[in-house]
Amino acid sequence: MLINSIKTACLILSLQFFVSVEIFSQYYVFFGSFNRDKTAESLFVYELDSFTGKLSKVSALKNLQNPSFLTIAPKGKYIYACTESKTQNAGSVSSFEFNPIDKTLKFLNSQKN
Questions:
Q1: Continuous segment of H or E residues that includes residue 3
Q2: CA pair distance 101, 90, nearest whole angstrom
Q3: How far apart are alpha carbons 31 and 69 in whole angstroms?
Q4: pLDDT of residue 95
Q5: Which pLDDT does position 38 carry in this prediction?
Q6: Mean pLDDT of residues grouped by 10 in the chain (113 residues)?
Q7: How far apart are the C-alpha atoms of 108 and 103, rounded to whole Å?
Q8: Strand-by-strand arrangement of the 26-32 sheet
Q9: Are 9 and 26 in contact, with CB atoms under 8 Å apart?
């Protein structure tokens, strides 16, 4: 039920895709978005309060254009973001390492398709 509420909220906020993971009994939700300005925030990390359903933004990344599809490695350590291939000079898969201690993503690598 809570996941359905989150999906509805995502559609209302016009955020394109999200994935979530539980680490150390904490829940994190990752959002990708479409952005025209590469210097704008585009990949977001939120913490989910599983009792209230409240999402709180804890960090975000810039310098990634249109990360419109996200997936998480099975243990939640790595996040993969695909950029839109219709975007000029884009169409790639980027990898990030999630640090649950400081709640940030660290860029690791990017490969064009």
A1: helix 2-12
A2: 31
A3: 9
A4: 95
A5: 77
A6: 39 45 74 85 92 92 87 91 74 92 94 83
A7: 16
A8: 17-23, 26-32, 43-48, 55-61
A9: no
- Per-residue tokens: 43: 């990949």
Tokens of 17: 């895709």
CA distance 90 to 107: 16
What CATH number does residue 100 fall under? 2.40.128
* Number of structural domains in the chain: 1
Q: What is the pLDDT of residues 74-88, one digit of tens each?
A: 888 999 999 876 766
Quick one: pLDDT at residue 53?
87
Tell me the two tokens of residue 85: 């291939």
Tokens of 95: 């990898």
Among residues 27, 34, 63, which one has the least CA distance to residue 48? 27
Number of H helices, E strands in the chain: 1, 8
93: Cβ contacts below 8 Å, ≥ 6 apart: 80, 81, 82, 83, 110, 111, 113
Range of the domain at 26: 2-112
